[in-house]
Specification:
This protein is mainly beta. The chain has 2 helices and 22 strands.
Length: about 270
């Protein structure tokens, strides 16, 4: 805090009436004050100049108010599933006049002047896989602004393909082919019938139709892929048709007289 001297050899006596500690400069025209123990204010500072002749100036009084520095905390890294918007949470800010949000991507904010905005990733954000979201707290004059960032990762949606419909003959087991699943943590098969699966948590299980399945003539087999958190699951179906086995009956055993011919009947 400086003061203007009337005489090059003047001395200055500084007093602070409401907190603050003079760190250095007492007796000179400029002092350094530590306000950490008594922030806020206003604080009253008085300085009296004594010139070389011992004459005192009229006291000069200055009121000083200490503005607290702005703080910002954007929160921790987070994930959002492709196709969804993300509501920011866990953010804090203090000693600010206003706040705003920015993104390293091209998505959009709703309620961008609050601590809990909603961010909608763009198609470009989804391709990139993540964006940095930054909270800016505008400091009260004369304090500087504060900012904080976190990374929002965009998790791809799972995909699944149970393959095309197929047929098997009665009495056989079935194993699907050309099944696919992506961006998933696990897969599982289920049936509309009462048959059983072997290796039901793989893309190539073995399905054994039950007697009821055979009687009905078909079942729907469903492949479900569980997405990576926070994404949900997706499913795809295929129809398995069970073809009845052929039946043959040559008739009962019979006898034929030597030299005669025989006509088969009863089949």
């Amino acid at each position: 805090i400086p003061a203007t001297a009337q005489n090059a050899t003047s001395t200055f006596n500084w007093t602070i009436s409401s907190g603050g500690a003079i760190v250095s400069g007492q007796g000179t025209n400029q002092i350094a004050v530590d306000w950490s123990a008594t922030p806020g204010g206003p604080h009253t500072i008085t300085v009296v100049e004594t010139d070389v002749n011992g004459c005192l100036s009229a006291p000069v009084i200055v009121d000083v108010t200490i503005a607290d520095a702005a703080t910002a905390n954007a929160g921790s890294p987070a994930n959002v599933c492709e196709g969804n918007s993300y509501t920011v949470s866990g953010t804090t800010a203090t000693n600010y006049s206003s706040i705003s949000w920015t993104t390293s991507g091209t998505g959009t904010f709703t309620s961008a002047t609050t601590l809990t905005p909603i961010y909608t990733p763009s198609a470009a954000d989804i391709l990139t896989g993540n964006v940095t979201l930054t909270l800016i707290a505008l400091g009260n004059t004369p304090c500087a602004d504060a900012s904080s960032s976190f990374i929002l990762t965009i998790i791809p949606l799972p995909t699944v393909n149970a393959s095309i419909d197929a047929s098997i003959c009665e009495g056989l087991n079935f194993s699907p082919t050309a099944t696919t699943a992506t961006n998933n943590s696990s897969v599982n098969w289920s049936t509309s019938g009462t048959g059983t699966f072997t290796l039901s948590n793989t893309l190539i299980p073995i399905y054994t139709p039950s007697a009821a399945d055979i009687t009905n003539g078909n079942v729907t087999l469903t492949l479900t892929a569980l997405g990576n958190s926070p994404c949900g699951s997706v499913s795809d179906d295929m129809v398995l048709t069970i073809i009845p086995a052929a039946i043959a009956n040559a008739g009962a055993d019979d006898n034929l007289c030597e030299g005669g011919s025989y006509t088969i009947s009863g089949a």
